[in-house]
Every structure is written in C-alpha cells, then in structure tokens.
Amino acid sequence: MVENTRQRRVAAMRTSERMLSGSRLPTMREQLAVLAERAELDGLPDFYGDGPVAVLEERVAELLGTEAAVFFPTGTMAQQVALRYGAERSGNPTVALHPLGHQEQHELRAYADLSGLRSVWPTTALRNPTAEEIAAIGEPVSSVVIELPLRDAGFVLPTWDELVAVAKASRDIGARLHLDGARIWDSTPYLEHSLSEIAGLADSVYVSFYKTLGGLSGAALAGTGELASYARAWRHRHGGLVFQQWPAALMALAGLENELPRVPELAWHARTVAAALAALPGVRVHPEVPHTHDFQLWLPHPAKVLGDTVLELAEETGTWFVSGWQDAGPPGWAVAEVRVNAPALDWTAEDVTEFGTKFLDRAAELSKRQAE
Q1: How far is CA 317 from CA 12, 275, 280, 282, 306, in A?
Q2: Which residue among 40, 248, 316, 332 sits deepest, i.e. has the most Cβ atoms within 10 Å of its Cβ?
Q3: Which is one GO molecular function term here (predicted)?
C-alpha cells in the first residue's frame, strides 16, 4: 500500500500541468539529455578528481572568492572534514552548532561519532545565533557553524549586519567560522551581497550541488589552500575519492549556469506566493515574508489528510499544490515546506488564492469523512 501510494504521487507529480511547490521529477533519460548538451562530453572523463571535477572546483572557488574548493560526494562528508580541520588546528574538539542545524538533525551527529567532537548550542531559538550569544558561549570552541539559511527553522537568514557581527564575534573568541551553505545560493537576494562577499566572512564554506542547482549529487568544501590539501587527504580516508564522478560534475556545472541566475526571481516570487497563502483563512506561513524561495506552510489539519488532498486534486485537476506534510505544533496542525521553483513563476496571487481555497475546502471535507 505504501509503495502504491508513492507510485501514485510520483505519477501525479509528473503528469501535473501546474505546480505551486517543487519541480517535476526528471527521468534518468531526461537528465542524460542535459548531460548530452555539455561540450565537455567530447573530452576524457575524470580520474580520481581531475578533468570535469577539477573544472567544477575551480568554478566554485571563483564564485565564492576562495583560494580553493574540493569536490565531495556528500555534504555530510564535507562538513565532517571542515569541523575536524578546525578541531585539529586548535586542539579543541568543541564546536558551536544550532540544535536544528544539519549536523544535528540530518547527519546522525557524524561529527561526534566519527570524529570525536562535541557540541555546544549558543541558542535554541528558531534562528541562527547572534554575535552576543556567541560571545557568551562560556568555553572555547574551535568552530562556529552558521547554516545559511537555517532550513529546519523555516529557511531563515540573519541580516547582513548580523552576519558580519557573528563573523567578528567568532574571531574574537578564537574560533573559525564555518558556513553550512548547502543553500547559500538562495541567500544572496535577502542578504543583498554576492556569494563571494558572504563567503569572505567565513573560514570555510560547504555548498551543495543538488539543492537549488538541480544536480545529481555532490558538494564542495571551499576555503584556503591549506584547508583544501587537508580536505583532499581526509576525503580519501573517508572513502570519498571516487574513480569517476563526471556525471555529477557536469550536472553541477549546468546548474551553476542555468539555475543559479534564476534565484533572485524565485526569491521575489516566493513573497507573492506566501502573501497569497497567508491571506487564506486558518493559514500560517513562516517566516511571514520569506527570506529565500523556500518557506514553511502551516495548516490546521492532520498531515495524512493534507497529503491525501494533494494527491486527489492532482489526479483530478492536473495541479500539484504542496507536499511533504508532517504533523507538528499544536494537535491537529501540520507543516510542509513550500519550494517556489520555476513552475511556480506562472502562478499569480489570484491563482494561489483560487486553488488554495479549493485545497482547503477539499481538506475540510476529507478530514470530516476520515473522522466519521
């Protein structure tokens, strides 16, 4: 039954003519077609990190304004290496993290179990720590981690001035500043500064190639040449020096060329979508004005009801609303992440209001039927 439901969802997403949140799942053939357009296919593949992988590393270092960047097969591996580097250079195994950060929530605390590090939490608030909270940590730390944006808090960002102050506070307590920048690509419109200016505040930056950019997989760790040399050695030790990764590298390069320039337009349109949703009865969005083209949508119905409603309406109308609902907050409420990607650019505020109303009416009907 679970597999059948998943298959129905995938089929409904792929056949939907309109999508408010997310993107249609491309087939492997469609992704191969993207690769086929790359001129690099006429050259030799990479062998343990040269060729197109090296080209990608150079491009990322150029965008971020760093001395070097190192390709990793996963962000989890890259982040472990970044924190280990800071701990070994300082002789201090303690790192400052947010409890909702990726290392704590989505990496099975690899920094602790594999690298022997420990964490302190400067804050538990639904935002990144402030400069004052970093200054008040009360014990030495080797690295301060700031996630841009902080996904599990609602894709929230500090202001530019707050980020500058955090960088200074980190230096003042003798710590490195590491940016968990899986979605740093999305941060430039809100921060009103370039990628290189943002990365220039930090000692190291991790970026993802499949988040926002639509790549197959992969990540990069950027910083000094010394960090890069260290990262290459530890990537090998972690088993991340893969024989050939040219498909991932070429898709990442395509994403940097084709998807990255769309980010400002998506970010501004997300504000239109969020405002229209927030005006509907019983609806909450967080943050009220999105910081990126992702934000949280809260509705007063159980997650199963909302998931079933999405599927029913998609199959009936060919329109995909918002998926990934999870029960959270007060009883009877659920939350989902709205991702305003290219398919949503065709939606006006009136379109969002019209279909959102239809969605809420159907959810109320379905909730009543399932309760009987």
Answers
A1: 10, 24, 20, 24, 16
A2: 248
A3: L-allo-threonine aldolase activity
